[in-house]
């Protein structure tokens, strides 16, 4: 009988969750979500357009920024169907295969974004700590190779996740606590031993997010050491100012990422609304804020944007 029930559930669906208890105002809640997605997609697309059409911005810093914009676009597109489906059409069901596909793209793009933030930290490190060799170190072919390696790293390490989940029978409550699928949550729905999934998920998280954040921290330590050795206070502030936008992007990305991961693994008694809130911040805020932060803090990019609108 158990085997029959397992097989029956395996051909069923997961149920996604919006804001519990607020179902009667889901249509109104959809308005800010729609605005966030529109601003994110338009903002990141505009950043890509400006960088592509202006040859003066074909420099390592802006090439890395365009990679970040592409990743943010992918993250937004990966989550639009389920989040807006819940709030606009009250569509909570998602098939197992669609759920596995969504979590693959969410996790792989998240890992790739972490890698791009590391590349951007390396760019600032070389520009400040070794400015005379900046052009010779960060050549276009080398940037392309680094970008390709990190993109492949993100996809290759994430590929096993849906296949590890697909081998399970799902016989427990099929209601997820988010408006989208995450590996650490879906695996808990299985009625099989999930030790391999748990260990592998933790391994790739530490290898990608943990190692990247550690190297970013190390690069900032070296940058601060170099900047503080500069005699001129003005030069010191100017050098640090070039890192502000990247530092904001790092904080916006890693804070909810780490918080959500900790809550899913260790926060069994945490309030459900806290998980839901962190989940939305993790997915929606970086794609929304990154183009705004870089447009405000980057003088050259801001000047090109103003020129487009003035024309």
Which descriptors apply to this entry?
311 residues, two-stranded antiparallel ribbon, Rhopdopsin 7-helix transmembrane proteins, single chain, globular, transmembrane, 12 helices, 2% strand, disordered N terminus, Olfact_rcpt, Olfactory receptor, mainly alpha
Explain this structure.
The protein has helices at residues 2-10, 26-53, 60-89, 96-129, 134-137, 140-158, 160-166, 183-186, 195-228, 233-266, 272-297, 299-310, and strands spanning 13-15, 93-95. Helix 4 (96-129) runs antiparallel to helix 6. The protein is mainly alpha-helical and 311 residues long. The radius of gyration is 21 Å and the shape is globular. 77% of the residues lie in helices and 2% in strands. It has a single domain, classed as Up-down Bundle (Rhopdopsin 7-helix transmembrane proteins). 35% of the residues are buried. The protein has 12 helices and 2 strands; from the N terminus they run αβααβααααααααα. The chain has a two-stranded antiparallel sheet. It starts with a helix and ends with a helix. It is a multi-pass membrane protein. Keywords: Cell membrane, G-protein coupled receptor, Membrane, Olfaction, Receptor, Sensory transduction, Transducer, Transmembrane, Transmembrane helix.
């Amino acid at each position: 009988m158990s085997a029959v029930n397992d097989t029956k559930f395996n051909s069923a669906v997961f149920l996604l969750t919006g804001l519990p208890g607020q179902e009667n105002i889901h249509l109104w809640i959809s308005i800010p979500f729609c605005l966030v997605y529109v601003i994110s997609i338009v903002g990141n697309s505009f950043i890509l357009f400006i960088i592509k059409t202006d040859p003066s911005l074909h420099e390592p810093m802006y090439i890395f920024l365009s990679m970040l914009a592409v990743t943010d676009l992918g993250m937004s597109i990966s989550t639009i169907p389920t989040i807006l489906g819940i709030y606009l059409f009250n569509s909570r069901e998602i098939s197992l295969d669609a759920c596995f596909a969504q979590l693959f793209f969410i996790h792989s793009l998240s890992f790739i974004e972490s890698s791009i933030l590391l590349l951007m930290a390396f760019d600032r490190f070389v520009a400040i700590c070794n400015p005379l060799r900046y052009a010779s170190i960060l050549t276009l072919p080398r940037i392309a190779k680094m970008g390709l390696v990190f993109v492949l790293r993100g996809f290759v390490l994430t590929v096993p996740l849906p296949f590890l989940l697909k081998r399970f029978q799902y016989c427990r409550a099929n209601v997820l606590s988010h408006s989208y699928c995450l590996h650490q949550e879906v695996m808990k729905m299985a009625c099989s031993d999930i030790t391999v999934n748990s260990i592998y998920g933790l391994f790739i998280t530490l290898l990608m997010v943990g190692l990247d954040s550690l190297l970013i921290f190390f690069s900032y330590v070296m940058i601060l050491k170099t900047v503080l050795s500069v005699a001129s206070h003005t030069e010191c502030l100017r050098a640090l100012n070039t890192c502000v936008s990247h530092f904001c992007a790092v904080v916006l990305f890693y804070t909810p990422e780490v918080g959500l991961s900790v809550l899913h693994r260790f926060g069994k008694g945490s309030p459900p609304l806290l998980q839901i809130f962190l989940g939305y911040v993790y997915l929606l805020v970086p794609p929304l804020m990154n183009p705004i932060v870089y447009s405000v803090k980057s003088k050259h990019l801001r000047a090109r944007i103003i020129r487009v609108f003035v024309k």
